[in-house]
Design brief:
It contains nine helices and 16 strands. It has 285 residues and is α/β, with parallel strands linked by helices. The two termini are 36 Å apart. Bound molecules: zinc ion (ZN).
């Protein structure tokens, strides 16, 4: 694990900092820090009794406007958090810390927006494209899954993937040849989004387009519209999304990885939910 000292998007060397906490479910599952109450029998002379949360800081980049948690999980913590994602152990622990999670999660319905994504690629891809969905879960949201010539999925969860798709290793994927690489709802979870983009960039050198989709969190929309520059300090807790993207932050990250942004748009899926969608290509293409 590391503490970030620079902007994880544009590499600015002086992000601003404000106190926050890691949500108890994430602290427990990723770090093994179960919620705890400090009681008088701890015998701590100078520490007040009461519930104790895992601390972190919110960092804000004054140049690109991106927000992120300063604590950057390593491989063991990310594996602990995401292994068998939304499986029985994950769900039981989350329900314990966040009562009503199961019901809310089911109500959300995990609507697929594959068709909305596909419409952005009209005329840009072959009729039967070769698709790589990095972080594609079981393939249920993979665009072009039905018409694809091949549909490969790389995912940390280890789940079985849907018929017509094939789960492959990261090494095989990076050696592959694709028309479209999909990175949808992945980068907001990663400690080092630039590392993954740099790894994937060579695939675009072989002709693939890269599609990136990240949540456009409500606070980021408010920051973009608002004129109170201190609003970012209202981000007092961090859950699974450890990176909150502004448009400029996403653009800076993509450019740093040696990619060109061909299109960057906001898509509003419901009154409460928006995403940023970017189509990228190799900068030298
Ligand atoms: Zn920045």
């Amino acid at each position: 694990m590391e503490i970030a000292r620079r902007c994880i998007y544009c590499d600015h060397d002086a992000p601003e900092s404000s106190p926050a906490i890691i949500m108890p479910f994430v602290a427990h599952r990723a770090l093994g820090y179960a919620a705890v109450e400090i009681t008088p029998d701890w015998g701590l002379r100078d520490v007040p009794v009461g519930p104790c949360q895992a601390r972190c800081n919110t960092l804000h980049c004054p140049r690109c406007g991106g927000l992120f948690m300063d604590l950057r999980f390593g491989e063991p913590e990310l594996s602990a958090l995401y292994a068998d994602y939304r499986g029985p152990a994950y769900t039981a622990l989350r329900e314990r810390y966040e009562p009503g999670y199961v019901q809310r999660n089911e109500a959300l319905g995990r609507l697929s927006h594959a068709m909305a994504v596909e419409s952005q690629f009209r005329g840009r891809l072959p009729d039967r494209p070769r698709i790589l969905d990095w972080g594609g879960d079981d393939g249920r949201n993979t665009p072009f899954r039905i018409t694809a010539d091949c549909c490969h999925i790389v995912d940390i969860s280890g789940k079985e993937t849907l018929p017509g798709t094939q789960a492959i290793t990261p090494a095989l994927a990076l050696a592959g040849d694709y028309d479209l690489v999909v990175l949808s709802h992945v980068l907001e979870h990663l400690s080092s989004p630039i590392s993954l983009l740099e790894k994937i960039a060579p695939l675009t050198g072989r002709g693939a387009l890269l599609y990136i989709e990240v949540p456009y969190e409500k606070l980021m929309g408010e920051l973009a519209r608002g004129n109170t520059s201190a609003l970012w300090q209202s981000k007092r807790h961090w859950h699974e999304h450890v990176n909150f993207f502004s448009r400029a932050a996403l653009e800076a990250l993509i450019t740093r990885a040696g990619l060109d942004v061909k299109q960057l748009v906001e898509r509003q899926d419901s009154p409460e939910s928006s995403v940023l969608c970017a189509i990228c290509s190799n900068a030298t293409a």
